[in-house]
Amino acid sequence: MKVIIIEDELVASRRLERMLSSYKFEIQANLVSVKQSVSWLKANKHPDLIFLDVHLSDGLCFDIFKEINIQSKIIFTTAFSEYSIKAFEYNSIFYLLKPIKEKELQLAINKADTIQKIENEYKTLKNLFLDVEEKKFKTSFTIKIGKKIKIINQEEIIGFYSEDNVTYIKSIQTKGIIHNSLTHLEEELNPKKFFRVNRSWIVHKDFISDISIHKIARLKLVLHFFTDQEIIVSRERVKDFKNWID
Fold first, then answer.
1. Nearby residues of 87 by Cβ (< 8 Å), 6 or more positions away
2. Which of its termini does the chain have fewer beta carbons within 10 Å around, N or C?
3. How confident is the chain (246 residues) per 10-residue block, as mean pLDDT?
């Protein structure tokens, strides 16, 4: 069986590939974005099976369907547990909840012969994911300034950064301390808008004014309304950052 993996998290992609190594599959490609997937599927014969992450670096996987009439059977993967209950209401579609477990993977593969591509169910599922995603991400934060509480909306946020074990939120007009780690914020923020470029910084896409090549295969960012420090995209995040910003 010929297989491709469409997954924007390198660790998750490699883990799935290792798990699939015990099966007699030919893994033809590992793709990370909607754009890359569309390009590959236009240029190559479609495989027997696709493991497809729902949320990719440049959008939801359903955007691929707008460009390509996929002929393959599809097993969706997702890290969002909110979707898992609804997912099993669809008999013709199979889901794997990340991190993927060996028993569930085997069940999905065994069911692959019965999985069908049914357009109306895909459309319904797309709407489900969009609805849940809309509710999932925080769009505002509060900070304390003296005796006052200030609300900072997503559109004003330049980014978040960590310094001396304290997390700061930086907006156009102010900055303040928030009681969330950057790791926790990654789960709360909309990944279409925000990206963690290194251990210390999460940036808002709309405030990136310039990107330049930095030493040792890294990138340097310049942000609107922020000149206090250099912001460098770490080497291990450069590839994902380029897919995200594209």
1. 76, 78, 93, 95, 125
2. C
3. 92 90 91 94 94 85 85 82 50 71 87 64 64 69 89 94 94 91 88 91 95 89 90 91 84
